[in-house]
Amino acid sequence: MNIKEELIQPLGTFKFWKELVIMTLGMFIAAASVYYFLMPSNLVVGSITGLSMVISSVFTAIGIPVKVSLVVTVINAILLVLAWLLIGAEFGAKTVYTALILGPFIELWEIILPYKNLIEPGQTSVMGDPWFDLLCFVLILSASQTILFHINASTGGLDILAKIVNKYLHFDIGTSVSVAGALICCSAFAVNPFRMVVIGLIGTWINGLALDYFTAGLNRRKRVCIISSRYEEIRRFIIDELQRGCSLYEVTGGYNGKKNVEIQALLTQNEFADLMNYLKMNDIHGFITAGNVSEIYGDWNSKKKKKK
């Protein structure tokens, strides 16, 4: 299958249109966080938007007014080539869409409700304090980034660089965002006082932490281990009702020396609740442990549940 067929084939699927709606809403929200909390306060948080604000300010200072939205679009267009070549056609195609609509969405928010109408007399930003502006921006943007990363897309810009580092160096996505963002923040020394640059660096660090937190929550699964003499009933329930796989291990009790079987399975939170309810309703006793797993590699997420 060539690249053209690979891109055209998904157009007729429900998955494509669902993800298109998710990407559009995600970028609409991300654009709002940039327009209402980043631009009025002139904060330069580690992002391509922050770098674009620096470039726009420099050009304006020398008498060449350039809109931030235009600089964002140009830089993203360059980075999209890297996304396509180094990450893959699907990620590249999705990021082309999300990156190119960020600038227009910023302009759209300016038409819908200019942030100047929200700034009270005596204030310099929407929230009136750079720390509040920073927190609002980071939390909203991190949530948007998490949703897009989950469907193999991104907001473009810095996220492309972070995704490349995440893929090839296997760093946490939040760490990748923080390191690349910190370098961009330093460019703000050209237009901002030292205090504002430090606030931007702290915001970049918080962005990485929030992104890792949201990602872990979105991908969280339960690793369940059960030792019970009625393991066969439990195995059938996991396979037939929950439609999940499981592993069986022969174990020996350290206290009494008796042999038994341990079942291990990776379940969603709802599936785990169904399993525990099944054990309670059928009076199945055993030794049960459960822990959270935030990353799974392999075919667990991509396998389609079999029909009953």
Features:
Alpha-Beta Plaits; 60% helix; 4 strands; 11 helices; alpha+beta; 308 residues; four-stranded antiparallel sheet
Explain what the structure shows.
The chain is α+β, with helices and mostly antiparallel strands. The protein folds into two domains: 3-219, no CATH class; 221-293, Alpha-Beta Plaits. Helices cover 60% and strands 9% of the residues. The protein contains eleven helices and four strands. The chain has a four-stranded antiparallel beta sheet. Strand 2 and strand 3 form a beta hairpin. Helix 3 packs across helix 4 (68-86) and helix 7 (158-169) crosses helix 8. The longest helix has 26 residues, at 194-219. It starts with a helix and ends in a 15-residue tail after the last strand.
Short description:
This protein is an alpha+beta fold. The protein has eleven helices and four strands.
